[in-house]
Amino acid sequence: MKQLDNKVAIITGASSGIGHAAARLFARHGARLVLVARRRTELDALVAQLADGGAQAVACVGDVGDAACAQGAVALALQRFGGLDIAFNNAGTLGPMGPTQEVALEDWRATVDTNLTSAFLAAKYQLPAMAARGGGSLIFTSTFVGHTLGMPGMAAYAASKAGVIGLTKALAAEYGAAGIRVNALLPGGTDTPLGRQVASTPEAQAFVAGLHALKRLATPDEIARSALYLASDASSFTTGTALLADGGVSIVRA
User: Fold this and answer.
1) Where does the Ketoreductase domain lie (predicted)?
2) Each residue of 159-173: pLDDT tens digit?
């Protein structure tokens, strides 16, 4: 059964990791896709791969922290597919890691722009398009870091991603009457290029895996399935939530 048949979805951070997995999964479930990322080569390859499988997808190259990128992705969805039903705003960055007193202000601001300001910009343009269709599902990728527990040396990441959860709840309350559901997805450690920035050696990866109750990292496909749940009618009465898909790291480390 195709859970997103004929739905139009924007996915950011689609060139790798969770966004790449979500693009492939959403396409298999019938969605027509606008895929956003900074890396054109990887994005074009994904669009071609999806087209070979019979899916409809279009690339939108840009920086999610730029208002023109957010506005352009929505315009492309309207132009190519006639509307917007789903947005999985997944792009993000770890930002500076290390003692907070050593974090440069420009690095802090860049992290907030990529993780939090981009979420605001996405919502600013996506929400009216969804309202025009009578509703939709808006999803943000956040994290357990700064939500269920704190981790040293990750202040910019934790603060910006915690802000995404606050934004999620505010938008869910504001736009529920328009039929728009807004939720945040909080993955645990996931085997992605971003995740490997935290754990770059086999020893570090084993340590991070051991922090989870399941004693392993998630695959991008596993997190994509949680995004599919939030995007689909399976979660039709779910809004304003921070959905943990964290392999139990929160219960083990809290």
Assistant:
1) 7-190
2) 999 999 999 999 999
